[in-house]
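Q: What does the assembly look like in three dimensions?
Context provided by user:
Components: three
Sequences:
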Amino acid sequence: MEVKDLNALFDELFPICRSITGQGFRDSLNLLRQYIPLEVKSVSSGTQVYDWEVPAEWVIREARLTGADGKTYASLEDSSLAVINYSAPVDNKISLSELKPHLHTLPHLPNAIPYVTSYYKRDWGFCLPYRVFQSMPDIEYHAYIDSEFIEGELNYGELLLHGESDREILLTSYLCHPSLANNELSGPLVLTLLYQKLSEWERRRYSYRFLINPETIGSIVYLSLNGNHLMEKMVSGLVLTCLGGPSTRLSYKTTRRKDALIDQVIAHLNKTNSLKIDVREFTPLSGSDERQYCSPGFNLPMGQMARTVYGQYEGYHNSLDNKEFMGIDSLFKSANEIEQILFALEYAGCFFNLLPFGEPRLGKRDLYPNMNNYMTREYSSDDIVDNRTLLNYVLMILNYSDGEHPMTWIAEKCDCSIFDLIPIINELKAKGVLSIEGDPRA
Amino acid sequence: MEVKDLNALFDELFPICRSITGQGFRDSLNLLRQYIPLEVKSVSSGTQVYDWEVPAEWVIREARLTGADGKTYASLEDSSLAVINYSAPVDNKISLSELKPHLHTLPHLPNAIPYVTSYYKRDWGFCLPYRVFQSMPDIEYHAYIDSEFIEGELNYGELLLHGESDREILLTSYLCHPSLANNELSGPLVLTLLYQKLSEWERRRYSYRFLINPETIGSIVYLSLNGNHLMEKMVSGLVLTCLGGPSTRLSYKTTRRKDALIDQVIAHLNKTNSLKIDVREFTPLSGSDERQYCSPGFNLPMGQMARTVYGQYEGYHNSLDNKEFMGIDSLFKSANEIEQILFALEYAGCFFNLLPFGEPRLGKRDLYPNMNNYMTREYSSDDIVDNRTLLNYVLMILNYSDGEHPMTWIAEKCDCSIFDLIPIINELKAKGVLSIEGDPRA
Amino acid sequence: MEVKDLNALFDELFPICRSITGQGFRDSLNLLRQYIPLEVKSVSSGTQVYDWEVPAEWVIREARLTGADGKTYASLEDSSLAVINYSAPVDNKISLSELKPHLHTLPHLPNAIPYVTSYYKRDWGFCLPYRVFQSMPDIEYHAYIDSEFIEGELNYGELLLHGESDREILLTSYLCHPSLANNELSGPLVLTLLYQKLSEWERRRYSYRFLINPETIGSIVYLSLNGNHLMEKMVSGLVLTCLGGPSTRLSYKTTRRKDALIDQVIAHLNKTNSLKIDVREFTPLSGSDERQYCSPGFNLPMGQMARTVYGQYEGYHNSLDNKEFMGIDSLFKSANEIEQILFALEYAGCFFNLLPFGEPRLGKRDLYPNMNNYMTREYSSDDIVDNRTLLNYVLMILNYSDGEHPMTWIAEKCDCSIFDLIPIINELKAKGVLSIEGDPRA
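A: Here is the predicted structure of the complete assembly.
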């Protein structure tokens, strides 16, 4: 996907009034499906999922707050943030003082419209800039919200990109926030870019599952249907959120268990300066869908990847979170760096030396220069260093590939990055000396 | 029990000439039974217990050392320390030089009578102040000890205070030393106070076993009869000793395994400044009955609690260890602090989130303020902090109550004391969201 | 063996042109057998061993490089290093420029003859001092090597010295290098000294297996025949190499697993200043036969012991590695220190208190002074310290001998060396209170 395609896709998606259910969510998913062939699934309103229940589908047709002075103070046409998400219908003429409890503003950001939801408690209300709120005269107002709650469905989109093994990497994001950029569209857009990159890889050791759902309730629904499968097959996963913004580095939130393959990879890349990534420790106190994947009954190896993190920028959950703040380029940068991380992940597990009894005969496999007699030969000293270093890598990989030492550990023992070892791993695999657990070509 | 009751009980107990067997021990136990309904058990003299044998019961009627000058230099009537504990009978007129090997003094504490025993090697002798010893003229002496060894029994007192679970906390002390205060009566008296406190608790998660026996041989006898039961049911335990004296803090000797629940609790209370307790590492080289409970064949989760520790004060094992040194107030202080520790212990284990799949719906259980919209509401900032902190506690407890993270760990993760979490734990239990392993009300 | 015997044995062994197979190896083994009754074993040329094959036996009769000027520039008669080890036969008159690729020198050590091998790639060549190489005129040369490859055998020598248990300590070295001292003869000679020492021990807890083989292929052959036995029975082992030279301390290379009994012993001796030994961490990148024993399929508890380590001295793999550099005294020193290490190893494991329930009655076994009444007795204060310290050792050994705490750990807990505990361990064993796992006399 080119920059202009991503720009255009963003511009189509941005104004849609999305929620955790409803037409806005489906329309958004369909726009993404031009680039990532997600299968759209549905679960009926009212379905019990663990401690939760799929809510009625929210239909929103119009929302407008007008004064007796004829002015419009908030309108869904101007911003999908103008109405409380999941607002109940209302058609009342009321005084300013009666209206006030239904108005939401941000006094410290007088030009911003806040993002407010009330999914599980029936309420109605408007969100508007504090500047506008202050200008409202003490007159009668017409609060008009044409919304409806229907027995509909909750939707999500899913796609499995097969690899050599049926063990899976889960990449997921959410699509339930209306007109917000970094803390909404960055996630599914980077997911889309990643799909395009990974589908072009020559080989994939792991299978990659792509999932886009409404936040929280969507992942709980997904887990109720697929939790057992994930507990059996999932190697690691990433919730993608807030992947735009000006921050230089990606910011990784560890899995709850802290020792998943993805945690090891991030730690290794940082330690070896291969890619510097900020690290936040797992917490259940804030975050996105990893809170569900990492609830104690599942405790899945699920991390979360962000760049400019929720709660840490002014525009968080308000109308300042727009394309200018997010930056389309940031999305490409995030996708490129996550691709590198996933590439490292493919090689980060524990391998098996298939000739584990004594040292393998490297000579007969062209893996071993005759070291005893290179002393008088005309190697440049640089060549000697290179050959010896490569040989050391070979010997370390073979000695420690016993199913217990991850390749990241071996790389650190070699004082190098896993990226330095990948060509050798592939050569040793090609020569039949090295295998990986569950590798169908072993 | 009031201060005056404890004072009176102490004064009745103090002069009795106790030993590891015999009437003095039984009389003492019966005095305690006014306040703690221990059942008195007996084991016959000569019974084999592991490498040991229950010794013959010691009967002591009179002991007096008089000179040809008509003076009494040592007398059981004056002090139960005056005769070697388990002394053989004697009725001899002998010279000072023949007598000297049978006299025990403390030259560095010339006014103190030492406490000397010879349970397993037949010997006779008197203990007296070095000041008296120095005044003895070189004349003939009459050494008279009217004692006897009979086929009798060894006794101990035991009581089980039931809790919700049949898993047990063992609280034990010894009652074999004659007129010594800190290193004798403090232990069973604090045990008695604890019985009274714990029997008044509204609920007890664990069952509490109270045990008073003669030191060493008594706990070996007890283990020979109940060791298997303890290995199955005992969660943690405390040997109570030396709980009086002027030291500001309790002093805890860890269990041999160092990771018992009681060890975790003490470490947590110290770490969070909830209650500062000195900690001594387990050693088999000195101490009380924990040496038997922590012998390698049992290795029970048994710590030891003291205040002014044996061997660390002048009056240790001599007549300076009296009520003035010990202090009746010290016993109340010790009992109050140990009660706090046991209260923390009740909540210190690993709990289970009963809705572990995804986050529980806190809203529908009144555990969760609607956080998204508190921005324009009129909370004082203090309230917000409080509510958010409480919510954090709820979320941390629920996420980490997976049967693997002790509540002390969760409290430290929350940067608070376990005492801060107890109201929330009880609320979550009451709402059916949280349980404890083995909790019959789960 | 006296100094003069070892000197004479060395002088007989040194000039022999040994290789990984052949008469030189057998002759050398037979000379050693005067002092260590190794059984000589053989495996036929061509035998498959894992990824390897036993090579054809190398027969070398004569090797000489003469110039048309009548001078001899290299000759097997002058040094067994003069010919590439495993050189193919040649009988050619060739020019200097054709000859040069077959000449091996060390420009930075112009007087030294390098040691060059080409076991698995057919090649021929001479090794000579760079000083001689520089003096060679541009004339015709006669390269004459009378060698042959025959279907013969590979040999090794093995001996089991029985101990109380059938669990084994493996002591091994190699014997395939020609005229080199530190990096060849030091190993089998120290092994021979150790055999003589250990066969004179009053008792051996473990059985000791002595093995001398050609390096690499020899240990691979040995593992192919005995690897399963070793995995079942081997407690620890040492590859002996480079045990001469001027270094003050022994230098130990850890096992791959790093937690073998031998690793624990070396760490303990260092920590308690009982014997200071340099420690190198295991690496598969260089070394001797431990690379085979520690290949991932075996992962045996095999360390390596050296003094002046291969690669760390000028004469490594060249003719400067002679008796003067090595030092016969060094070998005695190495043997004495390794004997101490093995003596510590005999006691370093986990023992069992045979009376583990409660404290054993030390009194009735004469292991326990009556501590309560030593206050007025006439011990010198020194005696009290000694007796108390010994009693502490007894109590610590008994409490922690539960099959889980190694005696080195107990010694460190006692703040002493394992050598301080050995007399007590033996006393406790003699009194039937202490045993060792698998000890047939338990």
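Follow-up: DSSP finds 13 helices and 19 strands in chain A.
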